[in-house]
Specification:
This protein is of the alpha/beta class. It is 61% helix and 12% strand. A hairpin with a 2-residue loop joins β7 and β8. α2 runs parallel beside α3, α14 crosses α16 and α17 runs antiparallel to α18. It is extended, with a radius of gyration of 36 Å. 28% of the residues are buried.
Length: 531
């Protein structure tokens, strides 16, 4: 149905125009008329026309002024100016208002029909575009929660920063740091704790979409999956400029969030909040948020508000410490050594008379580094493996000797982690290549292969390209084409059979891919090299 509004101060003109449209288009169009500028504005407010035919000269408010007013509340209507006067000033103003055509009276029946056909076609196009945009939006609404869950999981649990970076680009996240809120839900409170009966998790699945909407309206955040009776929420942000004031504001916003959630959902909620960390360290914020929940009976608690928080009682380069161990985890020997040397210089500068404490700190760092390597599977551990560490540390009498020992131990750990990562990558890639070579004739995808080696598709794609120099599709195509070439030279194998056996069930697609790779069609190749 197309809504058409005709404005003209001549009654005969209105009836004739309306009659032509109804006779030609019947019930496809709903037509309303108006004789004054004021009347057409009022009619447009309630009728919401798709198409407006507007006379310029009308009593009171003229056509140009009426169109300007209608544009304020209807941006989609198509305007066609109708006038007995072909004045340049009117035409110029009409163009500024986005008028489709300037029609001069008298207008023939055929002209009216052709203009209405043109206008309805434009309305259809706009409606189709709007419909397509709505479909895309619906699809995005389905996909975005999955992407957000993947992002939260990669940050907090998988420690796959390559995958996290990919998700971060998809979600258009600009900040390199943030904090975690853990939202806990339950049926009721008992002694300040939330009670979650067995069926609560099932109930949470039903209110999860609305939960996401409420949380995302309160915080610019990324919402994770339901885990038992908790949902992690990552909030990317800038580093707090006024930590205390910002924390007070944050807690108040979280309290308002709990009130809104309990007002809209049939559940009770608590929120634990961690500190702001770099994205690579966000797992710490998650652990802090959990500790905040477990360490207090408050409905909203920030980790900084817990009295048992451990803090340095003096200036300490904590960010440099984080960087040192982050470089260690990445196998970045150069970056790790830079931070090792920084710490040696810092300790000597601030505690040059306290050799034993420097020895203790270096021992702590070495043991911490080896624990990271052990957790990642890069080294093994036996109870007596470190039996000489204390004696060695105490026997080193100069700061430079301590530095060299510190460097040596940390480099060994860093290289073990790096080698282990490379071995893992090489092993995964070799396993993937073998799987492709054994299954090229099947309809296999990147997801299929990455699942075989138990690595996320994004990260697998990255290490596969680094190791082989080809991406997954390029390698799979090369394997298939090589097999097709072997088959095509066999007189007993047809071109179609060669395509099917090499993984191409569609002969036309097989021909296109083969020609792109070999600069000739499969038939030409068979004719030239066949036996």
């Amino acid at each position: 149905m197309y809504r058409i509004l005709i404005a003209d101060d001549e009654g005969l003109m209105l009836e004739a125009f309306k009659g032509v449209i109804l006779a030609e288009f019947g019930d496809k169009c709903s037509v309303e008329t108006a004789k004054t500028g004021r009347a057409v504005i009022e009619k447009a407010e309630t009728f919401h026309p798709d198409i407006v035919f507007m006379d310029i000269h009308m009593p009171g408010i003229n056509g140009i002024q009426a169109m300007r007013e209608i544009r304020k509340f209807n941006n989609s209507a198509l305007f066609y100016v109708v006038s007995a006067y072909d004045k340049f000033d009117y035409a110029k103003e009409a163009i500024n208002l986005g008028v489709e055509q300037y029609l001069t009276k008298p207008i023939s029946k055929s002209k009216i029909i052709s203009v209405v056909e043109e206008a309805t076609a434009k309305v259809d196009k706009v409606r189709d575009q709007r419909s397509n945009l709505l479909k895309i939006q619906e699809k995005l609404e389905t996909v975005i929660p999955v992407v957000e869950s993947g992002y939260v999981n990669s940050l907090l649990f998988q420690k796959e920063m390559a995958a996290a970076g990919y998700y971060q680009q998809l979600l258009d996240i600009e900040y390199g740091q943030g904090y975690v809120m853990v939202v806990q839900f339950g049926q009721s409170y008992e002694n300040g704790r939330l009670v979650s009966p067995v069926g609560m998790n099932v109930k949470a699945q039903s209110f999860y979409p609305e939960f996401r909407d409420v949380v995302k309206s309160a915080f610019p955040c990324v919402v994770g999956n339901i885990m038992s009776n908790r949902i992690p929420v990552v909030v990317p942000c800038e580093i707090f400029q006024n930590p205390y004031e910002d924390r007070i504001d944050l807690v108040e916003k979280a309290r308002e969030l709990v009130t809104r959630l309990e007002g809209r959902l049939d559940a009770k909620f608590r929120v634990g909040i961690g500190r702001v960390w770099e994205m690579e360290e966000l797992e710490r914020s998650y652990r802090e948020a959990l500790r905040a929940l477990n360490g207090s009976l408050s409905r909203v608690i920030h980790i900084e508000d817990l009295s048992q928080n451990g803090v340095y009682d003096e200036a300490f380069p904590g960010n440099d410490e984080k960087r040192m161990f982050r470089c260690l985890e990445e196998g970045n020997e150069e970056g790790m050594l830079q931070e090792v040397n920084f710490f040696c210089d810092w300790m000597v500068e601030h505690y040059s008379q306290d050799m034993n404490n420097i020895r203790l700190k270096i021992l702590e760092f070495i043991i911490w580094g080896e624990k990271i390597a052990f957790d990642s599977g890069a080294i093994n551990y036996g109870f007596s493996y470190r039996r000489d560490y204390l004696d060695t540390a105490m026997s080193l009498s100069t700061y430079e000797d301590l530095r060299k020992w510190f460097q040596e131990k940390m480099v060994n750990v860093c290289r073990a982690i790096r080698d282990q990562k490379e071995d893992q990558s090489n092993s995964a890639v070799k396993k993937a290549m073998l799987y492709i070579q054994e299954n090229y004739s099947r309809d296999i995808s990147l997801d299929d292969v990455s699942s075989q080696v138990n690595i996320s598709p994004y990260y697998f794609s990255k290490i596969f390209k680094e190791e082989t120099g080809e991406n997954f599709i390029e390698y799979l195509t090369r394997v298939r084409i090589d097999k097709a070439k072997e088959l095509l030279v066999d007189a007993n194998v047809s071109v179609k059979e060669a395509g099917i056996q090499s993984g191409y069930s569609d002969p036309n697609y097989f021909s296109r891919i083969f020609k792109k790779q070999m600069d000739m069609t499969p038939s030409e190749y068979k004719a030239r090299y066949g036996k």
